[in-house]
Amino acid sequence: MFKDASLDDLKMMFAKTIIRYKEFPVFVEDVAISRDEKVMLELYSLSTGECKWYPFNEEDYNFKPVRLGYLNLRGFSYYLYRKPVRKYKQGLALESLAIVDSGYHFLDNEERGRSQKVYKSIKELHSKELVATIKGYYPSLKDALTMFEDMACEVAFDRQFSIDRKMNIFYKGCPVGCYEDGKISFNKGQEYLSNALRKNYEI
Amino acid sequence: MKFSDILGAYGKDKCITSKDIGIEIEVEGRNLPKIDNSYWVTVKDGSLRGESYEYVSNGPQYLNKVPLILKSLKNRLKDSELNLSYRTSVHIHMNMTQETLQTIQSTVYLYLLFEDALLNYAGESRKGNRFCLGFKDAEGLVGSVLQYLTPNTIMHVNGEEVRYASINIASLPKYGTLEFRALRGTVDEKVLLPWINILFKLREIARYVSPEDIYNLSMKKGTEGFARDTLQEYFNIYYYDSMYEDIDYNRSCLIDIPFKFTTNALLPLPQKRIIKQRIILDEFNEEGEEEQPDEEDEDGE
Hints:
heterodimer; A: five-stranded antiparallel beta sheet; five-stranded antiparallel beta sheet; 4 helices; B: alpha+beta; seven-stranded antiparallel beta sheet; globular
């Protein structure tokens, strides 16, 4: 598809963005031409942390935008989504990424300080935990509850839902209910969100 | 209240028209003519490369003129060598000035429910394309739909936030239209007319149902019944293996829309009236011969 794209166009579209190489999320550090005139991409693997140059064989890459949602990172969770803005970047770039720190106002001061540091680290787009978000791997609600014993403040158990230590339920970054007596109760007017929690709703 | 009332209150009377559609077709290639006649004008587009033009319909047009207008363009390009690369696309502007806000909401909701099927048809190069991102690729669109498709906010859509979605709501306050950006570059009426027809069919359905109605109908009829009722004679064109699963998934991801944009009415889909609105390929072949664009305009380049 991009066979007639110039090096400048390829740099504009892919440099400093997240795409998929052999279906694994990678951060494109740079795009360049090799001595034998081949286009090469320098890829940082979000899974392994390795950084290597790879040839630009289109069949090895998936350039479609990665699916986002909640990110679980170092005891906090953040709702990530892409904005349909004009930034010329095909891959996921910081300029088109929105990060919602849903539970921030429910944290104490010490936790807020830690959360802010974690929040800043997301912007590097190198976090290994992004792989789980992109692939849709989340702990079950039952497992999420056990993670509060390990100092977690908030845990996403779905692309669109998270729970904090105080048992508040969040949807796309907004508090929408609570978990009590072994079940999720939604606030008045937001009961319809139970439809989004149905089994298998998120594949 | 029609959208034209809101546009008028903001001094945007120039946008208000009873005509249906605007069309933009981007092409790259060789020997491309500069067209300036009663049907088409030519502009340059920075996203294209090499010899390239964007052909834009000359102002809003009536739907029943579309076959003729497309034929006119195809005739003018018959000596051109087209390169319809991944950079090229077709944008359809659907006039919404004569519609209610509820119709706008419902048109957007229906489009998003069927977005995977529509992007499938639009072309492989258009899926996940940064110039026409689907709502699952750029979920910020859903928040913008909820924020801006209300009487008090519709004139304040932030174009920078939403313009590069496959459905562009920023053109509502700017031109009074919904812009559909997904279709690949083509001048083939056999591709263009089913695309235009299905988009206008969604608008026609949306005139009778709120987003809440659409949600309830889809639950009541089941996904297959809902898809068949909505796509009607175009069902076979747009059907693909995982269509029902994708609609179910989209309905879940879009759950806020029907529960925010509600109504008490639950109306059946108006099937007979919808069929009347379509433009069919036969009309393209028949009418295309009857009327030609104003050649004097073209020669006067």
